[in-house]
Amino acid sequence: MSSLPPCPKCHSEYSYEDGALLVCPECAHEWSRDAAPAQEEQRVWKDAHGNPLQDGDSVTLIKDLKVKGSSSVIKVGTKVKNIRLIEGDHDIDCRIEGFGPMQLKSEFIKKA
């Protein structure tokens, strides 16, 4: 039985030492033995009303949005299907009918 701690990422018990690091052969995560076990934070995306969002949700715009580099405006009430959540300032990646691929801020949408 190994006295090495399990992997903090996937909890595999098959970790091994590689120099000063510990390595998990299942997920390839590397960590220091001295490092305190960190709690990985999972970001929770929320719409303008505080409802949690997930990949694949349908949302509705709550504000007219100007399209940068164009004279077009995406009107309030436009429904967007199958969103993808991404990191960054514009945290929703989607495709809007008639406009094409767009990135939106979650503060301007509500869950449909």
Automatic annotation (TrEMBL):
InterPro entries linked: YjdM (IPR004624), YjdM_C (IPR013988), YjdM_N (IPR013987)
SUPFAM superfamilies from the UniProt entry: Prokaryotic SH3-related domain, Zinc beta-ribbon
Domain Protein YjdM N-terminal: 3-32
Residue span(s) of domain Protein YjdM C-terminal: 46-112
Family to which this protein belongs: Belongs to the YjdM family.
Name the record gives this protein: Alkylphosphonate utilization protein
